Amino acid sequence: MKIRLLLVGKTEEDYLLKGITEYVNRIRFYIPFEIIEIPALKNVATLTREQQNTKEAEAISRHLQPGDVVVLLDERGKEYRSVEFSTFLNRHFISGAKSLVFVVGGPFGFDPSLNKRASSTLSLSKMTFSHQMVRLFFTEQLYRALSILRGGSYHHE
Questions:
Q1: What is the model's pLDDT at position 19?
Q2: Is-above-0.85 flag for pTM?
């Protein structure tokens, strides 16, 4: 299985890029992993939130394949403890899916078409984080979950 993280917009802060790079390298020790940055929309002042979501959904959908298992990262999604998240991943590994794709949308959430396409929605917290921070938090949690599954020493419980 391969895991991809689709993001709308770029990660711009150096301190976040360093952390994300560190965890991406650790993740790749366990599994093929790729981050795909989708350019943020331009000239959004004339667009409604719904129009922005629709355009972002179109751009995201171009990176999805028919067999992909899609998981949206959204504050209203299901919350897991780290061990539970590792179990969630393991269920997908066992299922035989070729690709698990996590998606971080734009500032206004997701278009209904993506909600229909997704197999689940995941929340990293009930709190709202910047999209920049979510990238670091997610890569750390993905590494932690993979470490748990492989019996690594990173997670202490």
A1: 97
A2: yes
